[in-house]
Amino acid sequence: MKKILVIGATGQIGTELVPELRKKYGKENVVATGHKKKPDEEFKNSGPFEFLEATDKRAVEKMVEAHGIDTIYHLASILSAAGEKNPQAAYFVNNTALYNVLEIAREKKLERIMVPSSIAVFGPETPRNNTPNETVLKPTTMYGISKVHGELLGNYYFHKFGVDMRGVRYPGIISNVAPPGGGTTDYAVDIFYYAVRGEPYTCFLKPDSTLPMMYMPDALKAIMQLADADVKKLKHHTDFNLAAFSFSPAELAAAIQEELPGFKIEYKPDFRQAIADSWPRSIDDSCAREEWGWKPDYDLKGMVKDMIEKLSARLK
Questions:
Q1: H helices present in 36-141, as ranges
Q2: pLDDT at residue 287 tops 80
Q3: Which residue from 17, 164, 276, 296 has the highest number of Cβ atoms inside 10 Å of its Cβ?
């Protein structure tokens, strides 16, 4: 029986990943941890929850020992836009916490480490259309730099020490549960709250800024599916490109207007525009499809319809 520790469980991905893991493995077998943010009562009461400082190796080690952990989903990080406001903190948190987890995995011979990467690993010199899995990685943000470091470090630990770390390069993730968390693609979440409330939205990116995106159910499916994949079939480990669909703010607004005809949007690009301009417009995820059978369930239209239905029911 797996005993799973989720570090950073109160963030965008963790908030929805923890319940899915508990459905699959049992609520007592999934220990959720957060830093400062208090989870809501439903989340807190759904299974074990403890506060944890991810950069404190001994604290993480004690948690692993106390709960007999064999698998860690390491989600804690400072995202792109938030990281550019405090790059020193982003460097320290993102790199130190992962190194601690890898060292604990090495020392205690843990079964598996799952660590999300991001399209933030790419930069202006990367091909922007149908970005390949193997390409130039010269990001322009501290978040992206830390994710490149994490991918390389994880591959090193796999080949040097046999630590089975796996990860997907997530595009922008759209959730109807977790609020925006400081990412450059967060407009694609925030916009729905305004639309459902009948309010106009001011977008911080240009109308034609096309970026790869993914709906949260597919994001959860992907990382859990990769965790279960046969390691013998994996040629990659920590750096799988992942794709679902790409769109611009104008295309998303048009799709929302099909469901909510009165919705209005205006555009006032800020510092996040430069970050978006350094990222891909579309992703080649053929490695994930070939090595572990990845295939998304949602397209743009299906995502928009579900987002509006879910948020409308909750915001009434």
A1: 41-44, 57-67, 80-85, 87-108
A2: yes
A3: 17
Give catalytic status of residue 143 as yes or no: yes
> Is there a single domain that holds both residue 232 and residue 272?
no
Q: Are residues 250 and 187 in the same domain?
A: yes
| Active-site residue identified among 143, 157, 187, 215 | 143
The tally of domains found in the chain comes to 2
| Position 12 pLDDT exceeds 80 | yes
Residue 61 in any domain: the answer is yes
Confidence band, pLDDT 50/70/90 cuts, at residue 185: confident
Sign of CA dihedral 242, 308, 275, 94: negative
Q: Do 220 and 195 share a domain, yes or no?
A: no
Confidence band of 5 (pLDDT split at 50, 70, 90): very high
**141 & 73 share domain:** yes
Supply the pLDDT for residue 1: 61
Mean pLDDT of 154-175: 97
Burial class of residue 130 (count of CB atoms within 10 Å of its CB; 0-12, 13-18, 19+): middle
Question: How much is the pTM?
Answer: 0.93
pLDDT at 289: 98
Contact 74, 33 (CB under 8 A): no
Q: Pick from 103, 48, 46, 45: which is nearest to 74 by CA? A: 103
- Please, what is the average pLDDT of the chain? 94
Residue 279's identity, in one-letter code, is: W
- Give residue 268's domain range: 174-213+245-280+298-315
